[in-house]
Amino acid sequence: MMLILLSKKEIIRKYLELEKNRKKLEADIEKLLREKENLEKELRKYKNSNTPPSANPHLKPSLVPQHTGKKRGAPKGHHPFNRPWYSNTPPYHITAKECPNCHSDNFRVLRGARQQIDDVQKEVKPESKIVERDICQCNKCNFKFSASDGQTPKQGRFGINLMVLTIMLRFIVRGVMRKTASFLDASFAIKLAPASVQAIITRAAEAGNAEYEILKMHIRESLRLHIDETSFSVLGQKWWVWIFRSPTEKLIVIRHSRGNNVLEEILGKNYNGIVHCDCWRAYDYLTNATLQRCWAHLLRKSKELKNVPGQHFHDKLTTLFNEIKKFNSQERTPQERQEKYDNMTKRLQKITQYYARYDNCKKVTKYINFHIQSWFTCIKYENVEPTNNNAEQAIRETVIVRKIIGAFRSTHGVKTYETLASLIATWQSQQKDIRQELHRMLTTQLC
């Protein structure tokens, strides 16, 4: 082997080249690490313990559909719905004039076929009328008043039916102001500016203030609530939408705070019912209430533990969750529930104590231990669910609205939305006719 001797200058040159390459490589590694950190930060917005998997279908593994060979159909117990047949309606008879194949008029009628068609008028035009009212004064008490027929608004240019239609388009169809105005023009020849649509919505919300305040009182008096919150941009600032759901009512409030001051405003300091919630610290303010922490949040957190101890930890928690469901599937006495509650709480304490020795599990064990008495309220009391899915389902409509409109552009719009959205959601929960309820509310308050 020949030994190659380098001069002093060549050695220095090669050293400087290697040093330059090393610095470049370190810079590239640092850049890649920054990009990795930014991507992980962005991914955490969509994949975290507070976001249900159903919100991110693009992150789910693609599943190949399994073909069983059976015909797809309605599940067992499904009640079919067919439109009623109006047999008393005189038929509209369609006669043939020629053969569509050869255009011959020499043909015979073999039989008749009957179908029922539901349709609307080709043109639905608005009705305009001039309203004159008598302005009166009582001869007995000198009280002045204007005549009312109970169906015509005392102020404004828009009738009750038009207001109901506009609210339905805005909240049921989720139409934005501009598209709602365009639809009314195209379908009913009603020319409204987006500002006029907003005026109708605002007037309807003002008419619903009284019922909204009554709804707040009912929520405060409810013995069982599901509560959740999510962010919403208002004038470029981060606000919070709170949902308070009882078995029959839903209250939406939008505030600039995610703190316990919102809970104090809505529920008061001494609320003592059962509250389903996640582990957000603000709920600790409800010292007189009995809390049920959400197992769905907990299992999503433990599922993110990827090492072997973390996977075993997740399996233990999943077993406890399945045991909760199995225990609650049958009727139990209060004594059985108390014994089971004490037993499962002790088991959970032992599990967290064991897995707290692993560094990557410490965050989840602290999450559990901080609320150790609130994980099995669903065992202790009858008809209490282990998850807060009811609140997440109730707040999902507002999440969809957030994706459509992006932000509220005035605090006045915030008040309008929370009032009407709460009333409509409550009527839906109570299986009432939304159109009739809107008509009742508007005629009572405006006519």
Biggest sheet strand line-up: 5-4-3-6-7
Low-confidence stretches: none
Query: Helix tally?
Result: 14
The end-to-end span amounts to 108 Å
The percent of residues in helical segments reads: 40-55%
Biggest sheet features: 5 strands, mixed
Radius of gyration: 32 Å
Would you tell me the structural class of the helices and strands? alpha/beta
SSE topology string? HEEHHHHEEEHEEHHHHHHHH
Question: What brief labels describe this structure?
Answer:
single chain; two-stranded antiparallel sheet; 447 residues; alpha/beta; 14 helices
Explain what you see.
This protein has a domain at 218-391. The protein is an alpha/beta fold. The radius of gyration is 32 Å and the shape is extended. The N and C termini lie far apart (108 Å). It has helices spanning 8-43, 160-172, 177-188, 194-207, 209-221, 260-267, 295-303, 308-328, 334-355, 362-369, 377-380, 389-405, 411-429, 434-446; strands at residues 135-137, 144-146, 224-234, 237-245, 250-255, 274-277, 290-293. Helix 3 (177-188) crosses helix 4, helix 4 (194-207) packs across helix 13 (411-429) and helix 9 (334-355) packs antiparallel against helix 10. It has 14 helices and seven strands.
